[in-house]
Amino acid sequence: MAERVLTLSQPQIKRNEPVPVAVQSYWGMVRRRLVRDKITMFALGLLIFMVVISLASPWIGTHLLGFDPTSTDLLSRNQPPTWATDAWPLFQSFTQSCQNNAHCDWAQWGHILQRAAAGIGQCFTNGAPCHWMGTDDAGRDVLTRGVYGGRISLRIGVWVAGVSMTLGVLMGLLSGYYATTFIDDIINAIIMTLGSIPLLFLLIILSRIFQPGPEGLAILIGAFGWMGLSRLIRGQIFSVREREYVIAARAIGTPSWRIMVRHVLPNVASIIIVSAVFNIAGAIIAEAGLSYLGVGIGPPLASWGNMMQGSLGNFTDAPWLVITPGIFIFLATLSIYLLGDGLRDALDPTL
Questions:
Q1: Mean pLDDT of all residues belonging to the chain
Q2: Which of 203-207, 296-300, 312-316 has the lowest mean pLDDT?
Q3: What does the pLDDT look like over 169-208, one tens digit per residue?
Q4: Which domains does the chain have, with CATH numbers?
Q5: CA-CA distance, 268 to 179, in Å (whole number)?
Q6: pLDDT digit string (tens) for 141-155?
Q7: Which end of the chain has the least Cβ crowding within 10 Å, N or C?
Q8: 242: DSSP letter
Q9: 81: closest CA among 28, 19, 143?
Q10: Long-range CB pairs of 59-63, under 8 A, 24+ apart, other chains included
Q11: Within its chain, how far is the Cα of 226 from the centroid?
């Protein structure tokens, strides 16, 4: 009887069949890092929320809040939030107890919270418009002006970032590529001259002379805020301009402008993106500071800065005039700084 022999045979592999390889681009890696970063995604969502409510401020003011940012009511000046009308006297009594006595009368907080909760319920049930964050010294609704103020402050931030990025990238690119030449010397002389001028005093003088609008103020801030980015890009281009692909492009006769745009600039794109994000936050703070000093955006336009300026000296009598624009500035700058920090980590190829 013949024996059956079992043999194992391996499947034949086709030599010419290509093996699929998963290839991930640089920007795909950046996108994956950003999606996995929960803090950056939270900051992005918060920033989108701030932009949306600012763009939709006319609809929000008309249909949700029920007030116009420029309508005045002198009979309702410096009124506390509607829901805190009954709780505000108790809160003032609590602050006085902290100032006059050795200890604060913390027992009053139970009544304060009880009356505040009742006031919030009345605002939701009455149907009449409520001043959720009180009124200012002209009787205007503070929350409505805060929502409208984002249209000015955020727009100035974007304009400043655009102007400073354009000048900084152009000057840094030319200075770094033509290092140790007369072009580099001229640009460095300009940077040193502008850097030696006190920026705050210069902006105050120019704002007082020209009295610019939002775009004009943004151009003034951006025209004197590009030097730091220019130096940063110049330092990075020192190493990029000596790499093999740049030398090869220069050897085959590629024009200098094409080498800078196609080969040098993409290698510093991550720095430009992160700096642009940070410049938006810096511009918002700069506008707030100038408007607080009375040389920024003036009435009747509402910005977070001139809202702070209008609250000067009222922090103890009407703290909502300071708290409301402060909250908007804090949330906007916090989201921008967190987003910029996340972009900096995601765009770093060494991580």
A1: 83
A2: 312-316
A3: 899 888 888 887 888 889 889 988 888 888 778 888 887 7
A4: 37-70+135-346 (1.10.3720.10), 82-130 (no CATH)
A5: 16
A6: 999 999 998 888 888
A7: N
A8: T
A9: 143
A10: 60/144, 60/147, 61/144, 61/147, 61/148
A11: 17
Task: Please enumerate in sequence order all residues whose Cβ is within 8 A of that of 222, keeping only pairs 6 or more positions apart, or say none.
Answer: 159, 160, 161, 162, 163, 164, 167, 283
Q: How far apart are CA 265 and CA 259, in angstroms?
A: 9
Give the list of residues 6+ apart from residue 176 with CB closer than 8 angstroms, or none.
233, 234, 235, 236, 237, 238, 240, 241, 264
Q: What is the CA radius of gyration of the chain?
A: 29
Phi, psi of 253 (to 5 degrees): 85, 20
- Exposed e or buried b for every residue in 268-286, given b needs 16+ CB within 10 A? bebbbbbbbbbbbbbbbbb
Q: What CA–CA distance (Å, rounded) separates 25 from 141?
A: 50
**Residue 141 phi/psi, 5° resolution?**
-70, 125
Indicate yes or no: pTM above 0.90.
no
Q: Provide the residue type at 108 as one letter.
A: Q
* Residue 279 confidence (pLDDT): 87
DSSP for 210-228?
A: H---HHHHHHHHHHTS-HH
Closest CA to 327 of 319, 339, 317: 319
Helix then strand count (H, E) for the chain reads: 15, 0
Tokens of residue 244, six digits: 């093999």
Cβ neighbours for 336, distance < 8 A, ≥ 6 positions apart: 43, 47, 157, 277, 278, 280, 281, 284
Residue with token string 């590629």 = 254
Q: Can you list the pairs that 119-127 forms with residues at least 24 positions away whose Cβ atoms lie under 8 Å?
A: 119/81, 119/82, 119/83, 119/84, 119/85, 119/86, 119/87, 120/83, 122/83, 123/82, 123/83
What span, in angstroms and rounded, lies between the C-alpha atoms of 84 and 139?
A: 16
Cα distance between residue 6 and residue 9, in whole Å: 10
